[in-house]
Amino acid sequence: MRAHGFRHTRLAVRAPRSFASFILASFSPFERRSTDRTLKKSPLPAVNAQELIPLTDPPMPLPIVIADDSLLARKVLTKALPPDWDVDVSYATNGREALGLYREGKASVMFLDLTMPDMTGYQVLEALQHEDLNTFVIVVSADVQPMAQSRVRALGAVAFIAKPVTPEAVLPILKEYGLYV
């Protein structure tokens, strides 16, 4: 894992071994779901292998943010991520920092605690919704009350994980949304 990232999503394509097996596109994972549906309706035409141009740049890691005011919670969540997941991890200790990292293009996926100083997780979700910003937000909180869970989903979070975080809780969510294969 690296400390910084870019706002690109990898889109896998099948190609001969001598060519790159991926392309980079500048769209969020939310837009990718829409693109996937469009491609199923009208697939791209077949491409001759001689027309493919090899890519020389390595794949870009997926930028993620772990936002939690607790150093221990950030460490536990980092260890719960798949070790072979190609991501650039940025850390935020409050909601304002998390929102800033998103605006810098460092948060295609955001793991967000609800109770933080300066700006709560709820306020971050409201800001993302108000500004129509697209990112996968996975709320990670000790507040497991049904009201909290329904509120974060209404504000756009795709999932809710109860603390303490385990790999068994994270992995199915990442797979469900195509963030980890």
TrEMBL record:
InterPro entries: Bact_response_regulator, CheY-like_superfamily, Sig_transdc_resp-reg_receiver. GO terms for biological process: phosphorelay signal transduction system. This is Protein-glutamate methylesterase/protein-glutamine glutaminase. The gene is cheB_5. The modification 4-aspartylphosphate is found at residue 113. It comes from Paraburkholderia aspalathi. It holds the Pfam family Response_reg. Residues 63-178 form the Response regulatory domain. GO terms for molecular function: protein-glutamine glutaminase activity. Its EC number is 3.5.1.44. SMART domains: REC. Keywords: Hydrolase, Phosphoprotein. It comes from the Bacteria.
